[in-house]
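Hi V.,

You were right to ask for the full record rather than a summary. Here it is.
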Amino acid sequence: MNLNYHLWLNDQKYADNTQTAQLHRVRKVEEYYGDLDEHFKNNTLNEVIENLQYSVADERGNKPNPSKIIFDGNIRNNLQSYKNAVVRYRKYLHDDNFQSNI
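Predicted structure:
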C-alpha cells in the first residue's frame, strides 16, 4: 500500500474512523493477496476485486468463502467491506491529480 493513501483519504474528507477502517482492510487484503500497487501495475487488481465477490445468491446457497482471506463472521458482509476497500484504493491509484501533487 502506498504510504500516501492515508493523505488521500484525509483529502477526500473521510472521517477518522473510516480512514482507520480502510487502512486496516487494505492491509488485510494485502496480507493474503500481496501488494495492491503491484497488482495495479500488473493489471491484476480487478482479479483481486473479482475474488472478493460474494452475492446474496451465494449466501442463500451457503457457498464457502471464495477468497483467500480468513475471517470470522458473515461472509458476504466481510467480503463486501474488503472489496469496497480495494475499489476505493483503486480510485486513489487512478487519481492523477492527487498523485501529481505529492
